[in-house]
Amino acid sequence: MMKPSKPERRRFILPSFLFILFLCVLALIVEVRLDSLLKFGQCVNSFSSSQSYNSPTMVANSSSSDNDDEIRILIGIPTLADQYQRRHFLRLIYGTQSPVGAKIDVKFVFCNLTKEDQKVLVALEIMRYDDIIILNCKENMNKGKTLTFFSSLPEIFNDKNGSYPPYHYIMKGDDDTYFRFNNLVESLKPLPREDLYYGYVIPCSSMDPFKHYMSGMGYLVSWDIVEWIRESDIPKKQFEGPEDKVFGDWMRNGKRGKNRFNAKWSMYNYPEPPSTCTHELWPDTIAVHLLKNQEKWIRTLKYFNVTHDLKPSKMYHIA
Ligand SMILES: *[C@@H]1O[C@H](CO)[C@@H](O)[C@H](O)[C@H]1NC(C)=O
Ligand SMILES: *[C@@H]1O[C@H](CO)[C@@H](O)[C@H](O)[C@H]1NC(C)=O
Ligand SMILES: *[C@@H]1O[C@H](CO)[C@@H](O)[C@H](O)[C@H]1NC(C)=O
Ligand SMILES: *[C@@H]1O[C@H](CO)[C@@H](O)[C@H](O)[C@H]1NC(C)=O
């Protein structure tokens, strides 16, 4: 192809730039929202980066959105110290997701270490990944680990110099649940950041978030509820039993969670075996639960195209 001469190129630049500006203004009018200014920047950016010309980048760095708008979420996944493989797997799953407009920290939560080898291996993991919380407790499932988890958080994260709240939302997730961060964040954006109790309401057939409680597959509360759990006597008096149900009892007895959000059917159990709690995999998904074996994980990950962004390279060939 012949390169156009310089004046011709310049003649081309101006109209195309005006056209881009026109498109951006159009987009702006269509979507008049608070964050539209940022969108404008991204819009110009996406056009200008696809141009071969070195047009001036009048672009706000998208990292400048690291401010009040950004939702901070902690996902605590209770597990056991010896579950090295499971943690490795979940780090792969979540380390390859980069949510837009939010900071999501996934932390693995267990009680006191009990073996000498753990003291080496877990310490190495912490040095490498820094994503482990060791609570002051003896390992247990339905005898208060959840209470220890939530009530330890204010002290663990009370950095006087840091942001307040340290996290807007705390989620307790299962290690056999697959979370899709972008959809989680989108669902949270319109919701209150106070007194929120969010999840998949039990019983499965109910769509009323005030009915019973949110399933342990993944429930989320705002930071004020975490502080309440630490201070209130209600959880201290009653913490034995299925942790998700017990949590729901705290909310009811303490009159907490006036704001509730039922994320069903964006959260659901894996389609097999079918039950009233399942749903087919579909695009509008925040979480899939009961991924009890590799086959179910693989089918789920494939369905959501998680490897589509693999960049081509001479180093490998994956069909
Ligand atoms: C823009 O963002 C990138 C990555 O988030 C960061 O490394 C860089 O320092 C930022 N530049 C400015 C000017 O803020
Ligand atoms: C957990 O470990 C800490 C530090 O070693 C110890 O002080 C605490 O008593 C232990 N807690 C339990 C419940 O065993
Ligand atoms: C908080 O910031 C002050 C001043 O920058 C510093 O001296 C202090 O060590 C910081 N405290 C913590 C807990 O990081
Ligand atoms: C995965 O990719 C295929 C092919 O590009 C597309 O048809 C499908 O909608 C995608 N699935 C999801 C859940 O995004």
Task: Characterize this entry briefly.
Helices cover 38% and strands 16% of the residues.
Kindly list the characteristics that best describe this protein.
Spore Coat Polysaccharide Biosynthesis Protein SpsA, Chain A, 2 domains, binds 2-acetamido-2-deoxy-beta-D-glucopyranose, 38% helix, 12 strands, alpha/beta, 3-stranded mixed beta sheet, 319 residues, 7-stranded mixed beta sheet, 10 helices
Description:
The chain has two domains: about 15-65, no CATH class; about 70-305, Spore Coat Polysaccharide Biosynthesis Protein SpsA, Chain A (Alpha-Beta Complex). Helix content is about 40%, strand content about 15%. The chain is built from ten helices and twelve strands. The protein has a seven-stranded mixed beta sheet with strand order 3-2-1-4-9-6-10, with helices on both faces. Strands 5-12-11 form a three-stranded mixed beta sheet, with no helix packed on it. Strands 7-8 form a two-stranded antiparallel ribbon. Helix 1 packs antiparallel against helix 2 and helix 5 packs across helix 7 (about 225-230). One 2-acetamido-2-deoxy-beta-D-glucopyranose binds next to loops.
